[in-house]
Amino acid sequence: MADRDAPSLPTPGLQRSWWLREALAAEGDPVPAPPLSGEIEADVAIIGGGYTGMWAAYFLTERAPNAQIVLLEQDICGGGPSGRNGGFVHGWWENVPELARQYGDEAALAIAREADEVVDGIGAWCTRHGVDAWYRKAGYLRVNAFPAQDHDWDATVSRLKGLGAGDELVAANAAEVQRVCASPTFRDGLWMPSAASVHPARLARGLRRVLLERGVRIHEETRVRSLTVGDGRVNLVTDGGRASADQAVLAINAWASGWPGFRSRVLAWASYMVITEPIPDRLAGLGWTGGELLSDSRFTISYFRTTTDGRIAFGGGVGAAGYDGRIGQTFTHDRRAIARVVANFRNLLPMLDGVRLEDAWGGPIDITGHRFPEIGSTHNGRLHFAHGFAGNGAGPSRLAGRILATFVDGGEPALSALPFVGRRQPLLPPEPIRFIGARMVREALIREDDALDAGRRPSWLLRLIARLPRLFGYRLGH
Ligand SMILES: Cc1cc2nc3c(=O)[nH]c(=O)nc-3n(C[C@H](O)[C@H](O)[C@H](O)COP(=O)(O)OP(=O)(O)OC[C@H]3O[C@@H](n4cnc5c(N)ncnc54)[C@H](O)[C@@H]3O)c2cc1C
């Protein structure tokens, strides 16, 4: 499959993602946010202009309208994964069994309900601020695409039913799945009605606009090189200047894997996407006109959705892990990862053979040992952080932003009392063991999934490697 496509595969890493180019073109002539030069003082300094940093800034402007907030972004706001993700917005209903195991049933439900706010919250926010982020609440369907994948979510569905939240995740039979999207490879599925899709970059750029309108001082192309806390201040050094603030928020996602104090808790992994030419007639032929989000149920997940101009954006968590916190070309230029994404696209939607792929891009996702975010504070409450969304932060970053704002401002104890808040994630092995292990496990996971899809039994060695992280207490791998 991959070989047949190879000559025509779009090359990742040559330009910004299709999403961000589209959003910047629609934006026209945005208010500039020049690099920081000289010295500034603020009440709060936010590092990172993705969703997490921008939601934190936004909720702070709501809670403390007079606070002086400065946001420093090494690229442009939305230049990271927030401007190039799949745009799947959902909460944590699928995590409830694991959350219940860790914190108990009631706490798990409380967390999931709080996380669910993000879906309607983002829609309402877009309406309130006139941000046309192509928001559509049309639900999310996970499909079993091959016999080996059948019914791997039965336990989750019955657990949620038992907790009285059976409406949040509903089993869908084959006929119901076909009504959403008629692919011959799809079997039964799992329906999450509360999910929505967005144009990721339009959302990110919309946040930027609203923050500037609210007086947040944004400096783009401003990389924070060092952070120290002393004399009751947080001091930041950038290439061209210095910022000092009472408190700071570190919202750097996968870059936390290279940040002192966090590098042993976060692993960066690559996710890649392609986008087709507009094919509205072909989508109509599949009956896939409702804007539903889709994914398969492999561990190395393929996720796909339509756009308002009739394209399919298709992604997969098939990229490699980074080394020692370096976010380099592994995350943006990996042609092999794109070949894998395209092979999955052709396998899952074989009737779209021949459809042209117009663009390809990748980015880092941030994985912790339990595949759940770390949101907390350090340095006597002067530095707050949130990362570890495991490739699912488009929605939850809004919850993280709300929590970070309450850390800074001290209000809403119920939110910061959610039991996962302040909990550190397990330490990961040191380099180079982490890098070698992550690459071996990822290769084993992909090959195991491929073998199962082809109706073959994976070798014992593959199965052992894919399960190694679990044997060491991490919730990674099978
Ligand atoms: C290809 C792909 C597809 C994805 N699809 C989905 C999806 O469909 N649904 C979903 O829920 N999630 C998805 N994700 C994950 C989602 O994009 C992230 O979870 C989310 O964007 C996290 O937001 P953030 O603000 O924490 O991180 P980011 O968007 O990464 O923002 C962090 C920012 O910090 C900046 N930064 C880093 N270091 C510094 C520094 N030293 N100084 C200044 N700035 C710095 C970076 O440039 C970056 O802009 C996907 C990710 C990728 C890569």
Primary descriptors:
478 residues, alpha/beta, 8-stranded mixed sheet, globular, binds flavin-adenine dinucleotide
Major beta-sheet overview: 8 strands, mixed
Query: Which spans have pLDDT < 50 for at least 5 consecutive residues?
Result: none
- Shape from CA axes? globular
* Tally of helical runs: 14
- Helix-and-strand structural type: alpha/beta
Q: What is the CA-atom radius of gyration, in angstroms?
A: 21 Å
- Average pLDDT reading: 93
Q: Which ligands accompany this protein?
A: flavin-adenine dinucleotide
Distance between the termini: 25 Å
Query: What portion of residues belong to β-strands?
Result: 15-25%
- DSSP E strands, number: 18
Helix fraction, binned, reads 25-40%
What is this structure, in a nutshell?
The chain contains 14 helices and 18 strands. The protein is of the alpha/beta class.
Indicate the topology.
Elements lengths: L1 H4 L12 H10 L10 E10 L3 H13 L5 E4 L15 E2 L6 H8 L1 H25 L10 E4 L10 H9 L7 E3 L1 H7 L8 E4 L3 E2 L2 H14 L3 E3 L4 E7 L2 E6 L2 E10 L16 E10 L3 H7 L6 E3 L6 E5 L5 E5 L18 H14 L8 E11 L6 E5 L4 E5 L8 H14 L3 H4 L16 H21 L6 H12 L7
Parallel strand pairs: 1-2, 1-11, 2-8, 4-13, 11-18
Antiparallel strand pairs: 3-7, 4-6, 5-6, 9-10, 10-11, 12-15, 12-16, 13-14, 14-15, 17-18
The structure holds flavin-adenine dinucleotide.
Structural account:
The strands form three sheets. Strands 1, 2, 8, 9, 10, 11, 17 and 18 form an eight-stranded mixed β-sheet that branches. The protein has an eight-stranded mixed β-sheet with strand order 5-6-4-13-14-15-12-16. The chain has a domain at 430-478. It is α/β, with parallel strands linked by helices and 478 residues long. It is globular and about 65 Å long. The longest helix is centred in the first third of the chain and has 25 residues, at 105-129. Helix 2 packs across helix 8, helix 3 packs parallel to helix 8 and helix 3 (51-63) packs across helix 11 (396-409). Helices cover 34% and strands 21% of the residues. The mean pLDDT is 93. The two termini are 25 Å apart. The site of flavin-adenine dinucleotide has 40 residues, from helix 3, strand 12 and strand 16.
